[in-house]
Write a structure and sequence with these properties.
mainly alpha, 9 helices, 80% helix
Length: 219
C-alpha cells in the first residue's frame, strides 16, 4: 500500500503561520506586561508592589514552561473551566499557550525595565524636570521610560529567540499544530529533512530579529 506523503515545505507553510501568531501574542504580552510592571515597580522602590513584582518574576524565571503550562491547564482549563486546555481552534484557545510562552520573557523584561527605571530615576535630568514643575506622569513617560527602554530593546533579539525555542515545548503541551510540534516529531522520527527545514526557518527569523534591533538602535 502507498501512503500519502507531504514535502517538508508544505508542512512548514502550514505550521509557520501558527507559530508566528503564537510567538507574536507572547511577544506582545511579554513586552507590554513587562514594561508596565517594571515601570510601576521601579517608580515605587521598596513598596509592596515592588516586592510582589519581584517575587512573581522570580517564580516565572525559576519555573520551566512545561510546569507553568501544566499548572494553567490544571487550574484554569480543568478546575475552573474558564479557557480551553488545548488545541488551536479559535482566539480563546490561544490565551493559555501565549501566557505560558510569555511567562519567562515577561519576567526578564520586568526585571530589566525595573532596574533601568531605578537607575534613570536618579539621573540629573529627571530631577531637573521635576524641579521645573513637569507633572510626574509626563516625567515617567518622556524622560524615564524612553531611556529605560534602550536596554529592553537590546533584549529584543534574544527575546524573540527565546519565544521561538520555547514554543517547542509549549506547542507540544497544548497540541498546537505549529513548527515546534513538528520539530519535536521530526526529531523523534529522525526525519532529517524536516529538522533541517525547521532549523533554517528559525535561523532566518533570529537573524532578521537582530537586524531589526540594529535598525531600531539607529532610529
Amino acid at each position: 500500500h502507498s501512503f500519502p506523503t507531504r514535502r517538508s515545505s508544505d508542512l512548514l507553510s502550514d505550521a509557520l503561520p501558527v507559530s508566528v501568531e503564537l510567538g507574536l501574542l507572547a511577544l506582545v504580552i511579554a513586552l507590554a506586561g513587562g514594561i508596565a510592571l517594571g515601570l510601576a515597580a521601579g517608580a515605587r522602590r521598596g513598596s509592596a508592589l515592588d516586592r510582589s513584582v519581584a517575587w512573581l518574576s522570580l517564580v516565572a524565571v525559576s519555573a520551566p514552561s512545561f510546569v507553568i503550562g501544566a499548572g494553567l491547564i490544571l487550574v484554569v482549563g480543568l478546575w475552573l473551566d474558564w479557557l480551553p486546555a488545548g488545541l488551536w481552534e479559535g482566539p480563546r484557545h490561544a490565551i493559555l499557550p501565549a501566557l505560558t510562552l510569555a511567562a519567562l520573557p515577561l519576567a526578564y523584561v520586568t526585571q530589566l525595565t525595573r532596574a533601568q527605571v531605578v537607575s534613570v530615576m536618579d539621573q540629573d535630568f529627571v530631577r531637573t524636570a521635576r524641579a521645573k514643575g513637569v507633572p510626574e506622569p509626563r516625567v515617567r513617560r518622556h524622560h524615564v521610560l524612553r531611556n529605560a527602554l534602550l536596554a529592553v530593546l537590546t533584549y529584543f533579539g534574544p527575546l524573540l529567540a527565546t519565544l521561538l525555542t520555547g514554543s517547542f515545548v509549549v506547542e507540544k503541551i497544548y497540541a498546537i499544530p505549529g513548527m515546534g510540534r513538528f520539530f519535536v516529531t521530526a526529531v523523534t522520527n529522525r526525519d532529517y529533512p524536516l529538522v533541517l527545514g525547521v532549523t533554517l526557518v528559525y535561523a532566518v527569523l533570529v537573524v532578521l530579529a537582530n537586524l531589526a534591533v540594529d535598525l531600531l538602535y539607529a532610529w
